Automatic annotation (TrEMBL):
<protein>
    <submittedName>
        <fullName>Extracellular solute-binding protein</fullName>
    </submittedName>
</protein>
Amino acid sequence: MRYRALTWDHPRGYNALAAAAARLDEKRDGLAIAWDKQPLEGFEEHPIGDLCARYDLVVLDHPHIGEAVAQRCLVPLEDLFPEDEIAAWERDSIGPSLASYRFGGRHWALPLDAATQVTAFRADLTGGPAPATWDGVAALSDQAPVALSLAGPHACLSFLSMAAAFGEPPAVADPDRLVSAETGKRVLDLMALLAGRTPDLVRGRNPIGLLGHMARHDDVALCPLVYGYVNYAAPADPADKAIAFADAPRATADGRPGSTLGGTGIGVSIRCEVTPALRDHLRWLLGAEAQDRFIPDHDGQPSRRAAWHDDRVNARWGGFYRNTAATLEAAYVRPRHDGYIAFQAAASAILRDGLAGGEPHAAILDRLQRRYAESRTVGTER
């Protein structure tokens, strides 16, 4: 059986999957998988229904789950695997990596890859370790160039993470309210300060572009919130400087690291004819051999907790995993309702435009809340 599959265009998203597929022999193993790639922006924003109509397996981000369920384009894991196997994956996965794909009482993707926003810095430019608190980040920005990740959906994601650090994970206590006026103002005051100090050259760059810029230029010493990419901790190109990674900033030294969960899962589309051989291959990708060795050895970021604390893995990648594991364990899970993805894009534009134009922060918050409320009505309109 031959399968078409789609992932995203970066070594972290593609190399391990392609290498695993290359080990398959259709005559011997009963399946062959051809992995295509799409840009990061497509992974973040492309309609999931369209992708599932064209591919058997789709690597996706958990906020797409509500949209996928509304469009009935994915097969729930409960229809493919025994409950005890799913429960074991949940126990073994770091942080909410698998839990984030649970929606409407079922799981909709296998947690292949784990990631969240962490602090990235050049130790040769900061003169020491990354600041542990947001006050420390603000103080460092007086002395060294600091950049916020604001391109695409990341302005919104930074806002959500800061709110979580300040004790109010958005839309958790009250699913109809994004954040309180007090927390929102505190976040926007800090975002305005740091956005004003972000070098123009990196304002439009996604996390891959921002980290690549940091590796080759000396005009960004630290980005307090950017999705972690292990590849930049031990670059293959000798022209690149190694980037150090640390836990996301906290409001206080003993507080929660505020970070919004990323990572990827493998969804099985309804067009896919699932064979025992495909099930076994997916099981292997989540097993100890693949997660603790094969995936890290092929530029991927495993979702299995044990790999993040593995001495061999950390030695190979400059301590990236152990240095950021606490942030991943505490990561905030975004809303996943149908309509959330459109809100995330709109909210980022509201934040970028409002901060750049000096709009009163209360007005920015009002626009964010209105747009969030509108997103909650999408599913009721179908």
